[in-house]
Specification:
Elements: E1 87-88, E2 91-92, H1 93-107
Length: 108
């Protein structure tokens, strides 16, 4: 396995497959990763800026300590996930859910 940097510009690599590849510190600019699949990977410290992740799926991922800023979360669904300590606009999600459940109990 080599560790030399790879610089690629203006290229099309549709349906390419990368397996057992380490890309620490890699930068993607003006990229299209539509229908890309990342499986059993490690991406700590990765930053997405002006990225379109619409329609993306995340299954069994570790997003602990992740910050999402200025994002369009319209229609996002979070299920069967550990939301302990998760905040939206600095409000704990557990508090938001508790308030929602309390309001709905009062209505019934």
């Amino acid at each position: 396995m080599t560790s030399a940097p790879l610089n690629v510009r203006s290229a099309i690599h549709d349906a390419s497959r990368f397996e057992d590849v380490h890309m620490v510190g890699t930068r993607f600019e003006h990229f299209n990763l539509s229908r890309a699949q990342f499986e059993d990977g490690t991406m700590p410290g990765t930053t997405f800026i002006n990225a379109n992740l619409s329609g993306a799926g995340f299954d069994n991922v570790n997003l602990a300590g992740t910050t999402i800023h200025n994002a369009n979360l319209f229609g996002v669904h979070i299920t069967e996930s550990n939301t302990a300590g998760m905040r939206i606009n600095d409000i704990l999600v557990s508090e938001l859910l508790a308030a929602w459940h309390a309001a709905n109990r009062e209505q019934n």
